[in-house]
Amino acid sequence: MAAAAMASVRAQQACSRAIAMADQLPSTLPPAFLTFLKQNGLDASIYAAAATLPRYIRVQPRTSLDIPELEEELGLKLSPLAWLPNFFSLPPQAQIASTQAYQLGKLYGMDAASGAAVAALEISSGDHVLDLCAAPGAKLCMMAESLGDSGSLTAVDIARPRLAACRTMLLKYGLGRRTRLYLGDGTTFSLLPLNGGSKLCSASAGDDRSDDEDIGDGGFHKNPRMERKTVYGEWRSGRTRQEKRSAKRAKYLGIPLQTGVDGMPELFFYGIEAGVVGMKVADVARVCQDSNEASFSGYDKVLVDAECTHDGSLRHIVKYNEWGWDTFERRFLNEERIASITSLQLRLLSNGFRLLNPGGTLVYSTCRCIVSTSRTLFRMQ
Ligand SMILES: C[S@@+](CC[C@H](N)C(=O)[O-])C[C@H]1O[C@@H](n2cnc3c(N)ncnc32)[C@H](O)[C@@H]1O
């Protein structure tokens, strides 16, 4: 049997298994979770529908994708979403990874709900856009596409491997030209847009314009003295010797290598038109000093797609049938854990508002159903 056909059979079997298990819900849900749902006014039977929910793909508008050809390859009909351009729904068992269109970067899997969050930002050409929790990057790709040929996209995530997945996605889909990716903490991230986006900022690392050495090393800088003096060249993939040495040392010492020099976010990737090439390191690292000043120029659109409990993701919750509900209880129903996620969300949200231009748009998106804490978060803003 051909590999694609075998994959399809396996997917169908997995789907049937999931449907069989989801059918047992909500009776198999743990009492603590049922109480939690009740407290938040949610009907537990929604989880039974998880395995029959459609999947969604987003077709890249700039590519010439032949929909009938894709339908033939998948052996099924795609239904366009009238309210969300370039999105199509597919039956839950559909496998897109083996299609030519997927391999050529003409489409990617993305939930309609994720698409709706990006659509709500109403990004237009020339906007300066910030994504404070970017990885693994489906929303980022849609944002980059929506931006078109002017403006900028700045994205932050705290997890290096997840940010690497983001970079891979941007490169695969050819969407990184105007994008900067930072490894850093979204709760304290303070860097302002480039491309004329920031007027009020002072250099964070001094302003030494005497040395024009081109480092061009993929944006990995570990020596603060060198940082002050250098100019960015075109981003190149691959690690520098310096970066490899730092990573090896961090691994040996057991240090999580999460942020760059002096706690500053690390520039992980930048596209050719992201405004970085030719800039002094110190100028790229200009930080927001006081967003209340009249001349403040931050971001026009901010997405806070925060880390959350995932209880609002039906498909995710159903997986605990296999992973074990005790894991779910430990991860998400624990009061300390909920409090720490809520505090993180609040700090991300506050920072998002701090960096937003007056009259700009911020979209806060999570897959959690804890109504009371979401309301509290907004009251606290
Ligand atoms: C819900 S996911 C984001 C999904 C992403 N927007 C997308 O569309 O693919 C939440 C992300 O927040 C990141 N994260 C958690 N704490 C963070 C922090 N303090 N600063 C920045 N990112 C953080 C996690 O690493 C994770 O990748």
Automatic annotation (TrEMBL):
Q: Which GO terms describe its biological process?
A: RNA methylation
What SUPFAM superfamilies does this protein map onto? S-adenosyl-L-methionine-dependent methyltransferases
Span list, region Disordered: 203-223
GO MF term (any one): RNA methyltransferase activity
Note whether Membrane occurs among the keywords: no
The protein's superkingdom reads: Eukaryota
Gene3D superfamilies, A to Z: Vaccinia Virus protein VP39
Q: Which residues form the active site?
A: C367 (nucleophile)
Q: Which UniProt keywords apply?
A: Methyltransferase, RNA-binding, S-adenosyl-L-methionine, Transferase
Chain ranges of the SAM-dependent MTase RsmB/NOP-type domain: 43-381
Q: List ligand-binding residues for S-adenosyl-L-methionine.
A: D157, D185, D305
What family classification does the UniProt entry report for this protein?
Belongs to the class I-like SAM-binding methyltransferase superfamily. RsmB/NOP family.
Q: What protein is this chain from?
A: SAM-dependent MTase RsmB/NOP-type domain-containing protein
